[in-house]
Design brief:
It comes from Dethiosulfatibacter aminovorans DSM 17477. This is 2-oxoglutarate ferredoxin oxidoreductase subunit gamma. Pfam families: POR. One of its GO terms (molecular function) is oxidoreductase activity, acting on the aldehyde or oxo group of donors. The radius of gyration is 15 Å and the shape is globular. A six-stranded mixed sheet has the order 2-3-1-4-5-6, sandwiched between helices. α1 crosses α4 and α1 crosses α5. The chain has 177 residues and is an alpha/beta fold. Helix content is 38%, strand content 27%. It has a single domain, classed as Pyruvate-ferredoxin oxidoreductase, PFOR, domain III (Pyruvate-ferredoxin Oxidoreductase, domain 3).
């Protein structure tokens, strides 16, 4: 099994955090993973995207022209990267920041109000983690438990936020079930 994923949005939306968490969780689960970040000229507010490949076997290259899953955190990202999603792929759209619609019928699309869900949880900062939960549910590449183990290690310096992250993952999974 190999899963090629592109996560894209504005700087500050946690795009790189999603990619890093997936890479760490995959490696911890005994899989192979690559993480290739790309930044725009600015940090916050500029463009940011990363490509993550998770595989049961050795990965030849971190870059790919076609992807299995796109996580679009905003409208410009959906517009720019939707053509890279292969036929039969999955597109996860942060509906709170994107009113654009997927204009393809050969992909499976999900609109997740991630910012709204994060606000209901109590912290807008976990909108990216809501999207991560949606990805876990749709890809099947990692389990919720494997991801939470990684979240505890990588984001555990602020234990008061761990519960927000756990709930955010769960809400993302539930929303796409």
């Amino acid at each position: 099994m190999e899963n090629k994923l592109l996560i894209a949005g504005f700087g500050g939306q946690g795009v790189m955090v999603i990619g890093q968490l997936l890479g760490y969780a995959a490696c911890s689960a005994g899989k192979q993973a690559t993480f290739l970040p790309t930044y725009g000229p600015e940090q916050r507010g500029g463009t940011a995207n990363c490509t993550v490949v998770i595989s049961d076997e050795e990965i030849g290259a971190p870059y790919t022209d076609s992807i299995d899953v796109l996580i679009a955190m905003n409208a410009p990202s959906l517009k720019k990267f939707l053509p890279k999603v292969k036929q039969g792929g999955v597109v996860l759209v942060n509906e709170s920041m994107c009113d654009e619609k997927i204009d393809r019928d050969d992909v499976e699309g999900y609109y997740i109000p991630a910012v709204d869900i994060a606000n209901e949880i109590g912290s807008q900062k976990v909108a990216n983690i809501v999207m991560l939960g949606a990805y876990l549910n749709k890809s099947g590449s990692l389990t919720e438990e494997q991801m939470m183990d990684t979240v505890k290690v990588k984001l555990g310096k602020r234990p008061e936020l761990l519960e927000y992250n756990r709930i955010a993952i769960r809400k993302g999974i539930e929303f796409t079930s």
